[in-house]
Design goal:
Keywords: DNA-binding, Transcription, Transcription regulation. It comes from Pandoraea cepalis. By secondary structure, the chain is of the alpha+beta class. The chain has 9 helices and 9 strands. It is elongated and about 60 Å long. The model has no long low-confidence stretch (mean pLDDT 90).
């Protein structure tokens, strides 16, 4: 059986992908411009999405996301219990480091932020769970590429956590550590990210290294990695 898909469905979903933080409402014109589709095509597809509850149309004619997406999101949360294991570790790490803690996985050639916890105070780099970004040269990308995809980025396994500053944005930096699960197989990148000014200083001092390694080791054991492997790999 082929994997050609249905063009109309893909076009409709690409319209939903136009809604992002800071762009929660769109006119017919902006949707047409963003997708390259003719306004008539956008209008027909948005009418179908509106009838199904995936978008709502205001009196001004602008579109916003509808209630059906919230229902599907909640259904996803209920069926995906990984959050009950990962999120407590992220909360503890974010509270200790006072930086954003995230759990990134590989999905379709990108890195997907599956879970994220923000610090309770201070300047921070905010990102919503569900955000998908390229597999770039950031610390997060390097962890997924080296341990998850076996790309030969290094001749020898690098010292963890991996740290990069300004790799994607000159104002931000990140630490990333691999997380393993059953059969000691790679699962995700556990990360701390925030303003480059703060994390550059933390990198110099080394103050956040042990907390990250302990969090990654704890999470790996909870996800099924063997105690012997975790002790050897993380050294904590």
């Amino acid at each position: 059986m082929g994997n050609d898909g249905v063009a109309a469905v893909e076009k409709a979903l690409s319209l939903l992908d136009c809604f992002k933080p800071g762009a929660e409402s769109h006119s017919l014109g902006t949707l047409s411009q963003a997708t390259g589709m003719h306004k008539t095509t956008v209008y027909r597809l948005m009418n179908s999405l509106e009838r199904m509850g995936y978008v709502v149309r205001s009196s001004s004619g602008n579109y916003a996301l509808g209630h059906r997406l919230l229902y599907l999101g909640k259904l996803f949360e209920q069926s995906f219990h990984l959050s009950t294991v990962v999120e407590p570790v992220l909360f503890d790490l974010a509270a200790l480091a006072k930086e954003s803690a995230s759990y990134y996985v590989h999905e379709n050639g990108n890195r997907l932020c599956l879970f994220r916890v923000e610090p309770s105070e201070g300047l921070r780099e905010t990102r919503l769970p569900g955000t998908s970004l390229p597999l770039d040269d950031t610390a997060i990308g390097q962890v997924i590429r080296f341990w998850g995809l076996n790309e030969p980025l290094y001749e020898q396994p690098p010292t963890i956590p991996i740290f990069t500053s300004g790799a994607r944005d000159v104002h931000t930096a990140a630490f990333a550590t691999p997380v393993f699960g059953t059969d000691d197989k790679f699962m995700a990148a556990l990360t701390l990210s925030g303003p480059a000014s703060r994390l550059n200083a933390a990198h110099e001092s080394g103050e956040l290294v042990v907390p990250q390694l302990r969090a990654a080791a704890d999470l790996s054991r909870k996800l099924g990695a063997s105690a012997a492997f975790c002790e050897r790999f993380y050294g904590v």
